[in-house]
Amino acid sequence: AALEVPKMDLHWGKNSISGQGIWDSGKDGLQLKLDAPDLPALSSLLNINLTGSAQAELQLHGKISDPSAKLHISAQGLGIEKQLHLAKLSADIDLENALQGGINAKLQVQEIRTKAYTNDAQLEQNLASGLKDLEHKKTVKLPLLAEQALVTIKGRRDAHQIEGSLRFNAARQLLLNASGGVKMDQSKPPLWAGQLERLSISGHPDLKLATPMSIEAGAQILKLGSAQFDGALGSLALEQFEWTPGQMKTRGKIDHLKALELLNLLKPQSAVDGDLQIEISWDLQLKENIRGELNLQRQSGDVRVRDVDGTGKSLALEMKQLQLSLALGGLIAG
Fold first, then answer.
1. Can you tell me the distance from the alpha carbon of 80 to that of 49, in angstroms, rounded to the nearest whole number?
2. Other C-beta atoms within 10 Å of 93: how many?
3. In terms of pTM, does the model score above 0.85?
4. Rounded Cα distance, 157 and 179, in Å
């Protein structure tokens, strides 16, 4: 059945949604337009404290089962109060019908701020301090996560290229390239199948994909092929990762993991230092319970305890062997 909108013109404060047309008619199609200069006014409807403004235009043609579409979105200051802030967002998607139809998409975001890496107490303290010198309605900036994000998709539905970048700051950036396409099987939900050809993170610590990794992704499955990652903290060999509803399997190994450097990244360590390197291997299955094996062992180096006797000197533990093996087979606690 066709979706028909003879005429729509809804208003909520300064915000409006308008539309007209018929989708699935083979004629002019359906056009929808959003103009929301005051997103906070919609907060009570969505039960979310929105910020910023947004504009969007959507054109739908073809059949509902095989659509073609054009979408443009632009937003300024979009976010959730005290949670997320995007200074600018723009998105353009041009999708032709049929599996061999073209697809061109571009998503760009400027200045991504989030409290994800700031605890609530610290955030509230920052906000309270900032509000002393600001008018009530002015925005207090959240911590900066990334300066810019960019994703482009070019090609056809069944064969396209994906390029992405995430610039955290001038010294640190994530880059990725992938290729693949949508695969259709009438007996199964559609999925995307292809390979990740490049994944690199510059700066410290760095990380780089050494060999392409196959990917299958859909509503009912996420499957990653074997891959090797190398970086300043060690190397990761992923041998298996497969998720389906209610079940996950994973197997792999981390070599020469610089344990103290990793701990210092998570939380600066004042009591210990050292050059301990460890190996971690696992073969795990998560279903109604967790089963498998997890092994950890020392490969080289040692741990030193700082100022253990008050003289300012470090005490080496003289670690010669460290090994931990776990065989898991118990029920997961609810």
1. 6
2. 16
3. no
4. 11
